[in-house]
Design a protein that fits this description.
The protein is an alpha+beta fold. It folds into four domains: about 240 residues, no CATH class; about 120 residues, Immunoglobulin-like (Sandwich); about 170 residues, Immunoglobulin-like, CATH 2.60.40; about 190 residues, 3-Layer(aba) Sandwich (Rossmann fold). It contains 19 helices and 43 strands. The strands form ten sheets. Strands 7, 8, 9, 11, 12, 24, 25, 27 and 28 form a nine-stranded antiparallel beta sheet that branches. Strands 36-35-34-37-38-39 form a six-stranded mixed beta sheet, sandwiched between helices. Strands 29, 30, 33, 40 and 42 form a five-stranded antiparallel beta sheet that branches. The radius of gyration is 35 Å and the shape is globular.
Length: about 850
């Protein structure tokens, strides 16, 4: 039976609900500046009637989840390709809001098919509920016709923004054909809406019907009536719980049928993402020129240059400087359909000495006819221009530059009717190093180079900053010894002309790891002489389920352009200078928990300049004081020693709560057959205890050889699923697994750790223990060994595991079962998330390649760090 206090509270709530704003209407919001003109109902209907059928259906089907401002914007678009772009953006936003990855559209349309089949109209409350929030976890259909109208109670474990463990009550009003969600506003009057029809009540014996109606007029009528429902209805408890919950949470239920909110800035981003003219915006003048400077495989580089008068733009103040900023949104149409879309941002210094600012856009298109539509907007004033032009993209042939006195070569063109236009460009000298096929490279390997351009007369090979050899004829290859363990190596090849002057080149990093988030300037990679309009090509890798927010391109420290969509090709104007400069690319993800990354290419460097690596040795250090990490030490508390000699501290940072990059190597050999479940539990508990937002992890399983079972991922669920797939069989390649796992950390920044779960005895590795130890020293990643069931008398196994962990600044733990590991989680996490980063520069006379021991001393407590480094 419902309790008296709850019933009293319910009575007050029902009474108070009479004066509450009508159900389904949210409180008035603060007025915002109108970004999209609000259309009247008549205007909307008129515009919808003019849409293509597929766009009319889109408006009809997504009406429950579409905001009015989105509808007005969609109807304001001028053509079908722009509407197609809007549709793609609409579903992308829904994926972002629902934290899905490209699947929400399919999910919604599956819901739509079900709603059409199960409910009479999509406009009904149950259909809208189903479309907005998906199927309920349970539906209760009470049988209580004598007292109540037909009811349905939908249960949801959670509805974002509404609450948890929800019950939504639907009822069929008298003389109406479909269910409605019950509105508690109105107190007893609202409750009376749930009563059975009057003629049913009148059929009750004696004067019970009249007595019941009279009870509904008294102050305790909700309590009495709810008790009656609870006693006489089969699902009385569910009904009273649903009524109670809906009354008490009526404010939250105001948002029950509201589409996901969209703030004003999001609307502005929508406007920037489509090519639609704002009739109220000031106008800019823009002249468009198109040329075709290069080819990329079967595609042509279409370079579109817009010249915008500087005096029509307004610079924005940035500190003591001024910057002109122009936003670009573009579309390429083919046969009347949207072919591709893109977005850029360009920055120009306020003191730029040009009357017209060049906006250069590179797109890679196959030979055909297209329509280019470009919208440029002054970010300061909102002034804009929309430029539309038909472009016939030719097939481009690259030909060698003619020798002195020779005419230019003309390409042979078959005389075919309607043949696409053909254009020839002078073949620029190019050189590209073919990356090795295996991700991990060691031992003797042949480096191959692809060269184009008749100007190239030789190739110079560099290895780790030192010139190794020069080839004067084909084949352009060189055999290099990469060593017994996979070290981070750099291979550079430089093309030379007949006078031995460097022309162009390429550089690759070998054994660079598997970080899923990377940016690399692919061209130019080696640029001894570069100025004027220069084509920059950039490769960006983005982790699964992440989205690139922007790619910024800098000349020295001046931002030249911001790119949002591939292909990441951009022409920038590099000023003529006698000094060394650099091109920098900075990639940023939408997930702000992951820090940006960058790549830098030095250009206009002297041909004879060999690289001098000034190597800062960083020592992540934990200080244990009274059994716990110490957090309040100053730089003066530390002393550093390199091979026993004191060195000056060049870097000192105290870091807390940095994102962690965690690798886990799990022994899946036959010797672990009876322990594999314990190993899986230990690994799962570790990830559960340690991983937080912004962290990422990978999982390696090893038996006869190591295998990646989960690449870098920020989700704990992925790590758990990977552990569940591990099966015990064959021999134990522990040392190979350590090397393989550590390899994945190359290029990873921030706090790192490798956890190795094993019974410790290696029986199958191709790497020796000494090689694994050296590799662990070189990577500098703390290793935390978890030995499961390793007996105390297995001295050799324990010694080797202890040493490889302590040499890297980690630790070893020996347990019998997974629950024993709980006691060490806090210690590991405290070490990883609260460290001092100490750094020093080795003496210039230190020779590379030889292990050097370091020591960190502290005036109180005990310092724990790596044992040494390889210069």
């Amino acid at each position: 039976m419902i309790s008296k206090p709850l019933a009293v509270a319910l009575s007050f709530a029902l009474a108070a609900a009479v004066s509450t704003a009508a159900f389904g209407q949210a409180p008035p919001a603060e007025p915002e500046k109108e970004v999209v003109r609000k259309l009247s109902r008549r205007e909307r209907n008129a515009k919808i009637a003019k849409l293509e059928i597929r766009h009319q259906e889109f408006v009809e089907y997504v009406e429950p989840i579409m905001l009015p401002v989105e509808l007005d914007m969609f109807l304001s678009l001028e053509d079908a390709p722009a509407r197609d772009t809007f549709v793609d953006e609409f579903w992308r936003r829904r994926d972002h809001m629902n934290r899905t990855s490209g699947v929400f559209r399919d999910v919604y349309y599956r819901r739509l098919d079900i709603a059409k089949e199960q409910f009479k109209k999509l406009s009904t409350d149950r259909a809208r509920m189903f479309l907005l929030h998906g199927p309920p976890t349970d539906i209760v259909t009470p049988k209580c016709q004598r007292l109540l109208q037909p009811l349905e109670i939908w249960k949801y474990d959670q509805i974002p923004g509404i609450g948890h463990d929800l019950r939504i009550l639907f009822y069929k009003p008298r003389h109406q054909g479909d269910y409605r969600v019950w509105n508690p506003v109105g107190g007893s009057v609202a409750l009376a809406e749930l009563l059975a029809q009057p003629d049913v009540i009148a059929a009750q014996s004696g004067g019970e019907a009249e007595a019941q109606r009279n009870r509904l007029k008294t102050s305790d009528s909700p309590y009495s009536y709810i008790n009656k429902i609870q006693f006489e209805c089969a699902d009385g408890n569910e009904i009273t719980l649903a009524i109670t919950q809906m009354v008490q949470s009526r404010i939250d239920l105001l948002r029950l049928f509201a589409p996901p909110e969209l703030d004003n800035e999001s609307v502005q981003r929508m406007m920037r993402s489509v090519v639609i003219a704002n009739p109220n915006a000031p106008k800019l003048t823009a002249a468009l020129a198109v040329d075709y400077p290069a080819k990329e495989g079967s595609r042509t580089d279409v370079r579109m240059t817009l010249l915008v008068p500087r005096d029509e733009l307004s610079p924005a103040a940035v500190g003591e400087s001024e910057v002109y900023t122009i936003d670009v949104a573009g579309e390429v149409l083919k046969d009347g359909q949207l072919w591709e879309k893109y977005r850029y941002r360009f920055d120009y210094p306020g003191d730029v000495g040009l009357e017209k600012l060049p906006i250069v856009i590179d797109r890679l298109l196959r030979p055909a006819q297209y329509v280019s539509r470009i919208k440029i907007t002054d970010a300061s004033t909102g002034a804009e221009a929309v430029v539309e032009q038909t472009i016939d993209v030719p097939e481009v042939f690259e030909v060698d530059a003619p020798k002195e006195g020779e005419p230019a070569l003309e390409p042979l063109i078959a005389e075919v009717a309607d043949a696409p236009p053909v254009e020839q460009v002078t073949a620029e000298p190019r050189l590209r190093i073919i990356p090795p096929p295996d991700p991990i490279v060691k031992g003797m390997q042949t480096v191959e180079v692809l060269v184009t351009g008749s100007e190239v007369k030789g190739v110079e090979f560099w290895f780790d900053g030192r010139k190794i050899a020069t080839r004067r004829s084909k084949p352009w290859t060189l055999d290099l010894d990469f060593g017994d363990i996979p070290q981070l190596r750099r291979v550079r090849a430089v093309a030379l002309d007949a006078s031995n002057r460097p022309i162009t080149g390429d550089e690759v990093t070998i054994n660079a790891g598997t970080d899923p988030f990377r940016v690399r300037i692919t061209s130019p990679r080696v640029a001894p002489r570069l100025s004027g309009p220069s084509r920059i090509e950039i490769d960006v890798r983005v982790p699964d389920d992440e989205k690139l927010a922007s790619l910024e391109l800098f000349w020295n420290e001046t931002r030249m352009a911001t790119l949002y969509d591939p292909p990441f090709v951009q022409t920038i104007d590099i000023p003529k200078t006698d000094g060394v400069g650099y091109i920098r690319a900075v990639a940023t993800l939408a997930n702000d928990a992951i820090p940006p990354i960058e790549d830098v290419v030095m250009i206009n460097t002297p041909a004879y300049m060999e690289e001098l690596n000034v190597h800062l040795v960083e020592l992540p250090t934990t200080v244990i004081l009274d059994g716990k990490p110490a957090h309040d030490l100053k730089e003066k508390s530390f002393s550093l020693f390199d091979e026993g000699k004191p060195v000056t501290i060049a870097k000192f940072d105290r870091v807390t709560d940095l994102p962690l990059s965690i690798g886990m190597a799990v022994d899946a050999s036959g010797s672990m057959m009876n322990k594999i479940e314990e190993a899986q539990k230990a690994g799962a508990q570790f990830f559960e205890a340690v991983m937080k937002r912004g962290d990422k992890a990978f999982v390696v399983a090893f038996a006869t050889e190591p295998q990646m079972v989960q690449r870098w991922s920020p989700r704990i669920a992925d790590a758990h699923a990977a552990l569940a797939r591990v099966r015990a069989e064959d021999k134990t390649a522990l040392y190979d697994a350590i090397v393989y796992a550590l390899y994945n950390f190359h290029g990873i920044r921030g706090q790192k750790a490798l956890v190795v779960i094993s019974d410790g005895k290696d029986t199958a590795s191709t790497f020796t223990y000494d090689q694994a130890l050296e590799y662990a020293r070189r990577t500098g990643v703390p290793i935390y060994g978890v030995g499961i069931g390793i007996r105390g008398n297995e001295m050799d196994v324990r010694y080797k595991l202890d040493r490889i962990c302590k040499e890297t600044g980690g630790a070893t733990f020996y347990i019998e079962q997974a629950r024993d590991l709980q006691r060490v989680y806090d210690d590991i996490q405290a070490e990883l998330r609260s460290q001092y980063i100490l750094g020093f520069y080795p003496s210039p006379d230190v020779k590379p390649g030889k292990w050097r021991e370091v020591e960190v001393k502290v005036d109180r407590g005990k310092a724990k760090t790596v044992r040494g480094y390889f210069p």
